[in-house]
Amino acid sequence: MSELNSLQQFPQALSLDYKFFNVLPTIRINYKLAQRTNFFLLFRTSTNAPTVAQLQNVINNSNPQQLSVGNPSLKTAANQ
After folding, report:
1. How far apart are CA 10 and CA 71, in angstroms?
2. 75 and 54 in contact (C-beta within 8 Å)?
3. Alpha helix locations (H) across 1-80?
4. Which residues, in sequence order, are CB contacts of 58 under 8 Å at separation 6+?
5. Can you give the pLDDT at residue 54?
6. Of 55, 50, 48, which is closest to residue 78 (Cα–Cα)?
7. Residue 71 vs residues 33, 40, 42, 59: alpha-carbon distances, Å
8. How does residue 10 score in pLDDT terms, banded at 50, 70 and 90?
9. Contact, 8 vs 52, CB < 8 A?
10. Spatial contact of 57 and 67, defined as CB atoms under 8 Å apart
11. Contact (CB, 8 A) for 47 and 79
């Protein structure tokens, strides 16, 4: 489990408190078919939790050609 807390003051007061809980299965199969032949299978998952900058509803104007705003409703992304 991971936890993310943030307190935003500008442009409006906003407190972000997120808890991320993920079950990450890993499957590993190693099967010996013959004396010199093996079959190996690995399945692993991981997640990417959003950063504070991606969650805060603040305009990022570090690049005036590409303005962006955070999304407080963003969820964790799963990778396979």
Report:
1. 15
2. no
3. 52-55
4. 8, 10, 11, 69, 70
5. 85
6. 48
7. 50, 41, 34, 11
8. confident
9. no
10. no
11. yes
Neighbours of 77 (CB within 10 A): 10
Note the pLDDT tens digit of each residue in 11-68.
778 787 888 788 888 999 999 999 889 999 999 988 888 888 888 878 888 888 999 8
80 pLDDT more than 70: no
The 8 Å CB, 24+ separation contacts for 19-25 are 20/47, 20/49, 20/76, 22/47, 22/76, 22/78
Q: Where are the domains of the chain?
A: 2-70
